[in-house]
Design a protein that fits this description.
The chain is mostly helical and 193 residues long. It is built from 9 helices and no strands. Helices cover 75% and strands 0% of the residues.
Length: 193
């Protein structure tokens, strides 16, 4: 008879993975530490994942897909680019407030040289930047000389940089507010317009 997967253990494994990667870094977090923190054996971890890389990637992919779907929905349903960007920044900051460990985990992996972001993931981001550019040019909110790369620099880097600064506590500590969302949205729109 096939073994049933204990969803509680899987959740503990994901939480422990995020905690160890945030505390020790991607390269230094070990399978044994992750398993110990999750309260499972290393064998249990290997029964569900080939290695640490696959485990980390599965968590990364799961949560990035949520963000991607939300961004795509906003770009499809918003009448203008400002509304879509406001929704995206608001979603990002709200999630960082609700689950700071997840925000740190994802942020760390995006900038971790040893973590290989798949080409399909980068293509999806580029496609979103193209959608932003088209929507912004059609609505008159974005200059016609802008490129998808410019859109990436503006609409992904600016919010991510504030996320990083706030998580480090180097400028200001505390939760993200509506004022932060409005300020970042305005910065992005001014940079593109």
């Amino acid at each position: 008879m096939a073994r049933r997967t204990d969803q509680g253990r899987i959740i503990n494994l994901e939480d422990a993975t995020m905690q160890m990667v945030v505390e020790k870094g991607y390269a230094s977090a070990s399978v044994s530490e992750i398993a110990r923190q999750a309260g499972v054996s290393a064998g249990y971890l290997y029964r569900h994942h080939l290695n640490k890389e696959e485990l980390v990637r599965s968590i990364y992919d799961k949560y990035v897909k949520v963000f991607d779907n939300h961004i795509d929905m906003l770009l499809d349903e918003s009448d203008d680019l400002r509304s879509a960007i406001y929704g995206y920044v608001s979603f990002m900051f709200r999630n960082a407030n609700e689950n700071p460990r997840l925000a740190k985990f994802l942020h760390l992996l995006v900038y971790e040289p040893k973590f290989d972001i798949p080409k399909l993931r980068m293509k999806a981001t580029r496609d979103q930047c193209v959608k932003m550019l088209i929507k912004g040019i059609k609505s008159g909110e974005v200059r016609t000389d802008m490129t998808p790369e410019d859109m990436y620099i503006i609409f992904f880097s600016i919010p991510f940089k504030l996320l990083e600064v706030r998580m480090e506590g180097s400028m200001k500590k505390g939760l993200f507010s509506e004022a932060d969302t409005l300020r970042v949205t305005d910065l992005c729109m001014r940079a593109a317009g």
